[in-house]
Specification:
Blueprint lengths: L2 H10 L5 H10 L2 H18 L3 H11 L6 H8 L2 H9 L3 H25 L16
């Protein structure tokens, strides 16, 4: 796991604040933002979010449901929506970052609470000491 993926997991697990995550994202150049979004997309894909994870992610993100990234993930199949969201730039990209962190956070928590409840060897689930 690289530093970017580690930080994304810290954001999702609450070891780093979303405010700090937004500052990190906004301070990145366009190429870095794309890399961050691709890494975040990979994390979402691997967490297998349910429809409920997506709905809760939208609420948790505190974004308006009418914002483009929110509309896409609600109305399109997730794989299609993810690809469209990855193409966003500017303000929509910042909103997508916040939304994707929230969706990943919900899906990953659900999986940690169910599949990894008794402990696991997943490097990304053992962020406390890092």
């Amino acid at each position: 796991m690289n530093d970017r993926e580690l930080y994304i997991n810290k954001l999702a697990q609450g070891f780093a604040s979303i405010e700090d995550g937004m500052k990190w994202f906004e301070a990145s150049d366009d190429v870095q933002k794309q890399d961050i979004m691709r890494s975040l997309d990979m994390c979402i894909f691997q967490s297998h979010p349910t429809t409920e994870d997506i709905v809760q992610g939208i609420k948790f993100s505190k974004l308006k449901e009418t914002y483009s990234p929110c509309v896409l993930v609600k109305e399109k199949p997730l794989n299609e929506a993810r690809q469209k969201v990855l193409g966003m730039r500017g303000l929509d990209q910042e909103r997508a970052f916040k939304l994707f962190v929230a969706i990943f956070s919900n899906a990953d928590k659900r999986r940690r609470d169910s599949e990894c409840n008794g402990g696991c060897s997943h490097e990304w689930h053992n962020n406390e000491g890092l």
